[in-house]
Design goal:
Blueprint (H helix, E strand, L loop, with lengths): L1 E5 L4 H13 L4 E6 L7 H4 L8 E5 L5 H11 L3 E4 L6 H6 L2 H20 L4 E7 L26 H20 L3 E6 L2 E2 L8 H10 L4 E4 L5 E3 L1 E2 H14 L5 E4 L4 E3 H11 L7 E4 L14 H7 L7 H14 L1 H9 L2 H9 L3
Helix pairs in contact: 1-8, 3-5, 5-6, 7-9, 7-11
The protein binds nicotinamide-adenine-dinucleotide and thymidine-5'-diphosphate.
């Protein structure tokens, strides 16, 4: 089996490639990544010489070279993780989000149509459902919840999802979509909440909490997400959408305090800053469908996952120190200095 994984130099894509190579030693995994600021080739260094792995530095919007890659690699399955993924950046400048997340998805699916109606999986997000009120803990996102986006990021992901469903209905492309809640774990770029707070804590820097810190996210350990996608590409029903989440809702402030305490730092580092524009209040997934149909259940409890994650950042400074000393510092200054 030849599996093309796009965005494989990023956080979840790289974890997914490690999962595939370990579990299926007979598969060939072909990673396609543009290596934007969020892509990091050093993450893939340990597998670069694996004969079952191949890396292409390539933009998913580059139709000509994507077609050439399909001609060379003959994929059986394409799993699309490649995306601009950070909400705050999408508020600063939406255009690249539309380009990569929507146009890129269409190029990949056109290639799948052209080279033999290839199986296509779209890695989407629970953010396409918008948000839930904080005072209705009984409400959850199901696959039937209407799309109702808040940010340019989630709108671009929703646009891609609609295109995937259109390609399935109109061209009979064998597609599936997964919509997962917030992931955490090793190799997450330090602009996202959990690694940002761990790294700032380690450097005794202020911990910028948006608004009052009462927004709720439903956190899932990245390996559990990878296992869900593995199940969907092997056993999922064509044309279907699967929600993925672990019923692990937490407020941002509780997460930040937990990290501070685990690292033995002072809560005085916590700094409340101006809220994100259009900030979604609460995300919460109902994973009944994937549990009932495919037998998926989250395996890593948050208390174990967050410890593993903190330990990983403590033990892998070589991975993140070059990131925070480079271009990322300019981003950080721009986003946080006058907040
Ligand atoms: P990430 O930002 O860490 O990685 C994205 C990767 O895509 C990077 O390696 C980047 O170089 C690559 N990329 C960006 N534009 C590209 C292009 N035009 N062509 C080829 N490669 C390109 O993102 P992530 O957190 O790993 O998220 C992966 C996917 O999962 C995204 O589609 C995201 O929407 C979705 N998702 C993420 C989460 C989460 O909590 N992180 C939750 C649900 C869904
Ligand atoms: P983030 O990791 O950007 O994921 P998403 O917005 O896709 O859920 O943010 C998670 C939550 O943490 C979100 O409610 C915004 C909040 N947040 C902060 O309070 N401070 C920060 O510096 C960041 C990056 C996020």
């Amino acid at each position: 089996m030849n599996i093309v994984v796009t965005g494989g130099a990023g956080f979840i894509g790289s974890n997914f490639i490690f999962h595939l190579l370990k579990k299926y030693p007979e598969y060939r995994v072909i990673c396609v990544d543009k290596l934007t600021y969020a892509g990091n080739l050093s993450t893939l260094a340990p597998i670069m010489n694996n004969p079952n792995f191949k890396f292409y530095k390539l933009d998913i919007c580059d139709r000509e070279n994507i077609y050439k890659m399909f001609e060379e690699e003959h994929p059986d399955v394409v799993v699309n993780f490649a995306a601009e993924s950070h909400v705050d950046r999408s508020i600063e400048d939406p255009s690249i989000f539309l380009q990569t997340n929507i146009i890129g998805t269409s190029v990949l699916m056109d290639a799948c149509r052209k080279y033999g109606n290839i199986r296509y999986h779209q890695v989407s997000t629970d953010e396409v459902y918008g948000d839930l009120p904080l005072d209705r803990p009984d409400l959850f996102f199901t696959e039937e919840t209407p799309i109702h986006t808040s940010s340019p990021y989630s709108s671009s992901k929703a646009g891609a999802d609609l295109l995937v469903q259109a390609y399935h209905r109109t061209f009979n492309l064998p597609t599936t979509i997964s919509r997962c809640s917030n992931n955490y774990g090793p190799y997450q770029f330090p602009e996202k909440l959990i690694p940002l707070m761990i790294i700032n804590c380690l450097n005794n820097k202020p911990l910028p909490v948006y608004g009052k810190g009462l927004n709720v996210r439903d956190w899932l350990y990245v390996e559990d997400h990878c296992k869900a996608i593995d199940l969907i590409i092997h056993k999922g029903k064509i044309g279907e959408i699967y929600n993925v989440g672990g019923h692990n809702e937490m407020t941002n402030i509780d997460i930040v305090k937990l990290i501070v305490n685990k690292l033995g730092k002072s809560e005085d580092l916590i700094t409340y800053v101006t809220d994100r524009k259009g900030h979604d209040l609460r995300y919460a997934i109902d994973p009944t469908k994937i549990s009932n149909e495919l037998g998926w259940l989250p395996e890593t409890k948050f208390k174990d996952g967050i410890e593993k994650t903190i330990d990983w950042y403590l033990n892998n400074k070589d991975w993140w120190e070059p990131i925070i000393s480079g271009e990322y510092m300019n981003y950080y200054e721009k986003m946080y200095s006058n907040r």
